[in-house]
Amino acid sequence: MRTQQLGLRFAKYSGKGLSNFDRLFKLFKELLLHTSGDVEESLEWLRELNAEYKISDPDYTIEDFIEELKEKGYIRDDDDDGTDSMAITAKTERAIRSSALEQIFGKLKKGATGNHRSKISGAGDEATSETRAYQFGDSTQQISMNESIKNAYINQGIDDFGMTTNDLVVQESFFKAQMSTVLMIDISHSMILYGEDRITPAKKVALALAELIRTRYPKDTLDIIVFGNDAWQIQLADLPYLKVGPYHTNTVAGLELAMDILRKKKNTNKQIFMITDGKPSCVTEPDGRHYQNSFGLDDYIVNKCLNKAREARKLHIPITTFMIAQDPYLQQFVQDFTKANKGKAFYTGLKGLGDFIFEDYETNRKKRTR
Asked: Deepest in the core among 9, 147, 175, 222, taking most CB within 10 A?
């Protein structure tokens, strides 16, 4: 196993407090992301790791682990291609999403599911701790009885107790606003160049974000698209199997598809998150052919990108770019792109990518983007 090709480093793993199955399953889920859902390859890596680091007890073999995976419904025999192979199940896909959420957004405090709050206060449907004097037209359900009775005692006294509209106070609330997000993932060849695996962290962030929205903001929507020479939409279930291809970077095609998706959404709040590490190097011409330039920031391609950024701004769709490359000339392009859209840009390494996306998503849910 040549792990250096994917830029991985393994150290001694204790997994203290976990059962043999849970200890191996935790690593197995991680390996599935690195191998794009290849069960056989993941198990081969697991065997080698177990042989070197003794991550399981001697009386619990990898074969025992495989049998337990099957018994618990995490893998199945796959005879569709005529070979004696194995495949993961929907149960494993859910487990991978949950693990990604825990790893990346683990600091998220558990609470009731909800929606995004807008800055509009008044007769909304999410209570706050603030109160104000009653006004004609306020709903009686908003009246804070404890505060109103307290005011009546102060104003009228105990002996001549009574309540008037001047004593009434209501509890402020916020209107809930749903959010529609499109997450764009760069799958150009540079996402695995130079011995650094950039696609796996991007997949993990997408899985975690999807699980966050599904469990905490179920009325929000998340669509995922990938872009290389072209752009296309993928389903959440496709993420573990996502691979980088021999592609250029057609950022314009990705933005066009993202905006097409968001135009169809009824939600007022819309946004695009774009994870990329490389410069735009490809656009699709009206006749369907690709114009490509791998060597630099081609003015023709750059201008197409900036025009799309301005178009998104007119549609009130902010774009947040998460740039995982540190090259100054690429950062300059992202700065120009962000200025054209009036969006935001984060220049982050792979390690902090999830934190940046989580913080930005949480920030955006507290304000209206339109």
From this structure: 222
Q: What is the pTM of this model?
A: 0.75
Question: What's the pLDDT tens digit per position in 181-233?
Answer: 999 999 999 888 777 888 888 898 889 888 888 888 888 999 999 999 999 99
* Own/partner long-range contacts of 48-55 (Cβ < 8 Å, ≥24 apart): 48/1, 49/10, 49/13, 50/24, 53/10, 53/12, 53/13, 55/13, 55/15, 55/23, 55/24, 55/27
Tokens at 318, concatenated:
């902010």
Distance CA 257, CA 226 (A): 10
Residue 106's region, left for phi above 0, alpha for psi from -120 to 50, else beta, is alpha
Instruction: Tell me the C-alpha distance between 89 and 74, whole Å.
Output: 5
Which CATH number is 178-364's, of 3.10.450.50, 3.40.50.620, 2.40.50.140, 3.40.50.410?
Answer: 3.40.50.410
